[in-house]
Amino acid sequence: MYNFKNDYSEGAHPRILDKLIATNLVQQLGYGEDEYAQEAKAVLKEKLSNQAATIHFVSGGTQTNLLVISFLLRVHEAVISAKTGHIAANETGAIEATGHKVITTETIDGKLRPEDVAEVLAVYALAPHVVKPRIVYISNSTEIGTIYSKDEIKTLYKFCQSHQLLLYMDGARLGHALTAENNDLTLATISQYTDVFYIGGTKNGALLGEAIIFNKPELATDFDYAIKQKGAMLAKGRILSIQFLELFKDDLYFDLARKANTLAMRIATAVREKGYTFLTQSTTNQLFPILPKKIIERLSADYQFYIWKNIDADYAAIRLITSWATDEEKVTAFIKDLQEV
Amino acid sequence: MYNFKNDYSEGAHPRILDKLIATNLVQQLGYGEDEYAQEAKAVLKEKLSNQAATIHFVSGGTQTNLLVISFLLRVHEAVISAKTGHIAANETGAIEATGHKVITTETIDGKLRPEDVAEVLAVYALAPHVVKPRIVYISNSTEIGTIYSKDEIKTLYKFCQSHQLLLYMDGARLGHALTAENNDLTLATISQYTDVFYIGGTKNGALLGEAIIFNKPELATDFDYAIKQKGAMLAKGRILSIQFLELFKDDLYFDLARKANTLAMRIATAVREKGYTFLTQSTTNQLFPILPKKIIERLSADYQFYIWKNIDADYAAIRLITSWATDEEKVTAFIKDLQEV
Amino acid sequence: MYNFKNDYSEGAHPRILDKLIATNLVQQLGYGEDEYAQEAKAVLKEKLSNQAATIHFVSGGTQTNLLVISFLLRVHEAVISAKTGHIAANETGAIEATGHKVITTETIDGKLRPEDVAEVLAVYALAPHVVKPRIVYISNSTEIGTIYSKDEIKTLYKFCQSHQLLLYMDGARLGHALTAENNDLTLATISQYTDVFYIGGTKNGALLGEAIIFNKPELATDFDYAIKQKGAMLAKGRILSIQFLELFKDDLYFDLARKANTLAMRIATAVREKGYTFLTQSTTNQLFPILPKKIIERLSADYQFYIWKNIDADYAAIRLITSWATDEEKVTAFIKDLQEV
Amino acid sequence: MYNFKNDYSEGAHPRILDKLIATNLVQQLGYGEDEYAQEAKAVLKEKLSNQAATIHFVSGGTQTNLLVISFLLRVHEAVISAKTGHIAANETGAIEATGHKVITTETIDGKLRPEDVAEVLAVYALAPHVVKPRIVYISNSTEIGTIYSKDEIKTLYKFCQSHQLLLYMDGARLGHALTAENNDLTLATISQYTDVFYIGGTKNGALLGEAIIFNKPELATDFDYAIKQKGAMLAKGRILSIQFLELFKDDLYFDLARKANTLAMRIATAVREKGYTFLTQSTTNQLFPILPKKIIERLSADYQFYIWKNIDADYAAIRLITSWATDEEKVTAFIKDLQEV
Asked: Which family, according to UniProt (chains A, B, C, D) (predicted)?
């Protein structure tokens, strides 16, 4: 059985493990005060073209989302998300557990546009009997594999600014977004057109770890208190910073993501050539092909993946995910199996 | 400069890194559903002599404390802790941030006894104008290096049971407690005489990781929801389980702690021989010697440690910590320097 | 200008004020321990045909909802509500502020049916990555004026029981529901077929006050702690209990609600006779007629009401509310004005 | 049995009831938008000599405290209180339930001085491992009957300002403080030397109600959302504003408090003349005389009061409270009984 279920089925990229070994017995201060953290932040700020950015490393995506959102909101404020957004659909009420409503809105492709946000603002106008929207949460790539263009982000950001809203981007799969064939964003443009975002390590080669970027340092004042309070401050913070240093000191992070995308696109092409369609128009490492249930059943004998959504009596959408660690031969085999069944 | 500031200045024990490398590309399910987790839990249950125990792995101590305590308490309930307890003194209001008061009480040696708890119950009797005490939180070893005897734990547990209180032990340094020269507890007796406890990995050889043990499985029902909600469920849960498997498949965990204790006791003997006293009667890897400030100043040139407490114009207590990774030669050098100054 | 905006534009029914005056200088214990509370609870239990019920009085509906829901839920649990439900639409994230998600579902008439709940359960099946539904929240009458039949409540309750769900009814306008022409429920049947509900006083003749009824006393253990903690325990609890005693010692509560309904139905008949329709099929004291905007504009000169929803270029729905205090002559005048414009 | 247990044993001052009756059927907007609220705020601003103040009315003291404190604090911030402070000792963890630690400190007389606060700041210096103190909470009169002088408040306020701390005064018994024989504060000086405070109605003649005063309006922005969210926004807000209007349109509020103090001082004099001492040096309506247990037992036959604290085998301190409603003849009788036993 080969696993196409997710992009965290393996450990870390070998270069990361090597670096952990090489630095293992070097004494460092704890709680994020290690020298590697300084280095990793310097490397990242360079790539962001934003020397003013404030950066923190934590261990996972849900943790990041609840930390950032609960830190930036006051008691009566709320966050707006696509209904498919990870904070709305997959995090066990993590945001609500910090006291804040997640206002959801239906979207076609998992992306929020100014008109979606404007509609929410109209519904949430009856102050003080409703919460006050304050953060717009987006994911890039989205939970269904689509990505934002530079123009879309810029337009959304300007809308947010003119409505006293903060724009926060969940980058659990940011590497995959930035290396997609139709991408025109960079870390620098994202740093320019969002208030806060994070760069996901866990799903792109790290053992664990996400880098939270406050593009405007004034938003980050005292954030270390929150990290400690929510149990997210690792005593051995070096584990996180060493990994980000290794991923970003050259282009490893992007190379890994590009590989995942390339393999996904190979599968996508094969799906299309067989005449099948997709639930979403993904250009990244998550694919949602709609296949005959009989074929799904056959493929299930050799491959693990999620049955994502029932379409009708004969068809269902599945989710296939590739990663930096995906075995190319298994992709080839999967395509062959798909073509032959 | 050599660092005696804490027991998390280095990475992981080499056997752990080796195991991470060896298993790195084996595909596993995420979110704690990996095979290593099953193995590690089986090994631990054996050592606990408690097949019914429910075990979860998370990444840090503050995270563990806030998870367990907020999961077990209802809205109006509170936790009792020594004033020196980690949840009261060092966790940035993590418990309060989940909605619960930490009731603190002064102790002589960082340990809670039935009479301390009884006193709290007497003060918190005016229901419903006060919170309802429900959990007794203790640490072993304590934050000041002392340990509980089997008799003390048993007596406290019986008191808790007869007062509808849950007993929860913070085991951030449990290895050091269980290998102290004056210890008579085992994992099995702790499993018998507490409701919940955790075994700390971070401060005893792991990169990160704590094992939460619910001795009574009914207390653990649905706990995985809480882990996810608080951002503590690692996508690559294998990182935690592999480490605990390696630490407990033989006696590595205890060997590492014993080494730390032994080195600390060597320093303690030297301190005593020089005629100095201690702030607390530690038999574990944290020492609080009271030294002349002039000597502290000289030692500070070559060693890092915390100045813990001012005693008077001439004396202060410092905190020295040893670990599995402490260099024996540095301990020898430190003792020599102490004797010579 | 006459106010049809809501059912809390005036003070209290004169009998309530008289009783407050008559008892004013009688010394009583505070915090709900007054003798009137005992009497009022005895009277209510009689009407509920449920001597085991546990009853508490608090001051408002949002307060009641957040108290009951946060008290009954554990950290990872959630409440299901119609999208029009008060807790979802009108309470400024009060439930989320206590840490819990409100799962909303679209309904036709503001009422939840077993199939609605079943659908939510299906969506929230991917434990532990989603919250665990635990309470089903319904309102009777609903926020759009409709009511539940005995059969509907009974069926829903049985569904809840077979799915480990608690059924909680918001009775802010329960009097209006129970005196509607198409009603077949009583306080006793509601006590039988819900786990918890409340009887609203504020919108039916009281200065302020809601009676929370735990039909199963075991659910109410320690609830007084929660009342105090959320700031809902009035020092002079007598203010609440005296009012409920007066409202329920005979049929005053129902008489007041019936009057409100009767006046609303007079308006409804007039609306229908003029050939207009309604947004919702209300049989209680809230009406949502769809009227030509020109007529709305004319009526607005003499009457206050909410423009509820735009229908098209020419039509909008307005909300008209009657109460125990509505002046019958103003209703007559309004009908005449409606007929003549 | 006559009740000296508290100052909320009766209903409201007759003038308040009269006003509620007189205004009962005048239609008003709900949720604090009534005309009486405008009038009452205007009257209060005049007395505060602070036209910029923002004022809100809510129903009780615990509610006020949790509203103000949770609204002003960010997630990692905390409030400092005397150990005897109401938020620390008598509110069932209400502040912690909103996510914030209450840092307590021992005091001699229930009052906080700059040196007390400075000591807390020193202990809470190890950021980010501890919470960040942000609000200083004081009560006037205190929970043990003492009051602050103008000089004390001014000094404390200046200390707070120079340390980025907000000063918040709990005025549950502010009337009694401002009419004490040794008082030199006014509403205007309090408005000048605190950031936020509240004027308690419940314990001084109102049925219920407290007036929250933000002396600096920028602190109050959006506070109405919080009032609604915490269930503290009464639909019939008029009940609160009418009472404050009546209490403050002339000097009724102060007259009532003065009466309570005068009666308490009569008792105090009698206690002193009998040679007994007090637990605290109260000049307001709460007295804590230390009496022989035999005398306490005899007095208990005819009077209700709390046994506050055991002193030794023969003596205990009791708490006696007088109010606007206390019967002067009962005070005379009590003094006579005390003199004769």
From this structure: Belongs to the threonine aldolase family.
- H or E stretch covering B135: strand B132-139
pTM: 0.97
Of C21, C28, C94, the CB nearest to D229: C94
Residues A196, A214: Cα–Cα separation, whole Å: 5
Cβ count near D315 (within 10 Å): 16
* Residue in chain A nearest D77 by alpha carbon: A225
**Per-residue confidence in pLDDT tens, chain B, 341 aa:** 999 999 999 999 999 999 999 999 999 999 999 999 999 999 999 999 999 999 999 999 999 999 999 999 999 999 999 999 999 999 999 999 999 999 999 999 999 999 999 999 999 999 999 999 999 999 999 999 999 999 999 999 999 999 999 999 999 999 999 999 999 999 999 999 999 999 999 999 999 999 999 999 999 999 999 999 999 999 999 999 999 999 999 999 999 999 999 999 999 999 999 999 999 999 999 999 999 999 999 999 999 999 999 999 999 999 999 999 999 999 999 999 999 98
Q: Are A213 and A197 in contact (CB under 8 A)?
A: yes
C65/D231 Cβ within 8 A: yes
- Measured between beta carbons, the chain D residues lying within 8 angstroms of C207 are 20, 236, 239
Which chains sit next to B, with 3 or more Cβ pairs under 8 A?
A, C, D
Residue-level pLDDT at C341: 82
Q: Please state, in angstroms and rounded to a whole number, the distance separating the CA atoms of residues D137 and B171.
A: 35
Alpha-carbon separation of residue B74 from B270, D144, D268 (angstroms): 49, 31, 43
C-alpha separations of C260 from B74, C4, C246, C337, D72 in Å: 41, 11, 19, 20, 42
Sheet arrangement for strand B196-200: B54-58, B210-214, B196-200, B166-170, B132-139, B77-82, B102-105
The token duo for A180 is: 């997609």
Residue B148 three-state SS: coil
Q: Please say if the pLDDT value at position C206 is more than 90.
A: yes
* Mean pLDDT, range D103-125, rounded to an integer: 97
Residue C100: closest C-alpha in chain B? B229
According to DSSP, the residues that pair with C77 across neighbouring strands are: C132
On whether the CB atoms of residues D99 and A75 are closer than 8 A, the answer is no
A316: enclosing H helix or E strand: strand A315-321
Helix (H) or strand (E) holding C89: helix C86-89
Q: Do C129 and A91 touch (CB under 8 A)?
A: yes
The answer to whether the Cβ–Cβ distance between D94 and C229 falls below 8 Å is yes
Q: For residues D138 and D155, give the distance between their C-alpha atoms in angstroms, rounded to a whole number.
A: 13
Task: Taking each helix axis as running N to C, give the angle between helix C14-22 and helix C238-248, from 0 to 180 degrees, rounded to the nearest 10.
Answer: 130
Tell me what pLDDT residue D10 has. Answer: 97
**DSSP code per residue over D136-160:** EEEESS-TTS----HHHHHHHHHHH
B162 CA to chain A: closest CA distance, Å? 32
Taking alpha carbons only, the member of B1, B2, B9 closest to residue B325 is B9
Taken in order of first residue, the domains within chain B and their CATH numbers are 2-7+255-340 (3.90.1150.10), 14-252 (3.40.640.10)
Inter-chain touch C235–D60, beta carbons under 8 Å: yes
Tell if the CB–CB gap between D231 and C94 is shorter than 8 Å: yes
The minimum CA-CA distance between D168 and chain A, rounded to whole Å, is 19
Q: Which residue of B has its CA nearest to C67?
A: B75
Q: With contact defined as beta carbons under 8 Å apart, do A140 and A111 qualify?
A: no
Between chains, do D231 and C17 touch, taking CB under 8 Å as contact?
no
What residues of chain A score a pLDDT lower than 50?
Answer: none
Nearest to D63 among C17, C62, C231 (CB): C231
Interface of B with C (CB under 8 A): 31, 70-71, 74-76, 98-99, 127-129, 131-132, 222, 224-229, 233
- Asked if D99 lies within 8 A of B97 by C-beta distance, the reply is yes
